[in-house]
Amino acid sequence: MRALFHAPLLLISLIVVLLAAPAMSDAAERPEDKPERVPPEEYPIYDQVVQDKFLTSETTLVIIERLTATRLGPEEKEPPSRAYFEENRFFEGRLQPDLVTDFILKTVRPFRLEARFNFGVSYRFVSGGELEGPEVSLAPIPAAFSPADLAQAPRSTIGVLEFSRVGFSPRRDQALVYVSDDRPDGTGAGFLMLLRRAGREWKIVDTQVLWVARHEDSPIAP
Question: Is residue 193 part of a domain?
Answer without folding.
Answer: yes
